[in-house]
Amino acid sequence: QDVSYDNTSYYQDILLKGGYTIKYFVDDSLQHLFLKKNKKTITDLSTVSKGLQAKNLGYVWSDFPDCFVFGNAYGPCNPIYAQLINKKSGRNLFKHDVALLDVDDAKKIILYTSDTGSLSNMRLTLFDINSGRKETFKYPQDIDESAIYCSIQILKLTSKELAIKYQTVTSGKIRVYKRH
Predict the structure, then answer these.
(1) Are 166 and 154 in contact (CB under 8 A)?
(2) For residue range 92-118, what is the model confidence (pLDDT) as tens digits?
(3) Residue 93 and residue 167: Cα distance in Å, rounded?
(4) Exposure winner among 65, 75, 115, 142, fewest CB in 10 A?
(5) In 3D, which of 71, 120, 118 has the Cα closest to residue 98?
């Protein structure tokens, strides 16, 4: 039995803060997500072939007044490849895609890693959207490697410390880092 996927109903207009909109558009061979304000197209956020499921275009993970987190996830516990998109310019404020770990919407903080490969070389990066300040911390070495990208959550964040919750092979664990 042939089961078709109706991409046209997948995306409705996505309304963002500040009067911005993400619009879904299909041409002869491609599907697009465009960032727009009023009738002005700012950028083509994502493009995939027409035959692919529209969800492969990506998602808005968090929306802030001047920027938003846009990412792609391809299954449970795979990295969420994310960009921090400036709404006015459409540019990624990160130099490259990062693996999103958690977002604190209220404090406008993003926790991510841009490292791949050996766990011993990985770092957590805490990015403050308001100030543009980055802090790095050692990745927990006892994390369950099958959950390396999906088990870390910000538990508590103050001016003096960052507490994260994550999964080891046998249980959940909390780790507290001193902030610089």
Answers:
(1) no
(2) 999 888 999 999 999 999 999 987 677
(3) 30
(4) 75
(5) 71
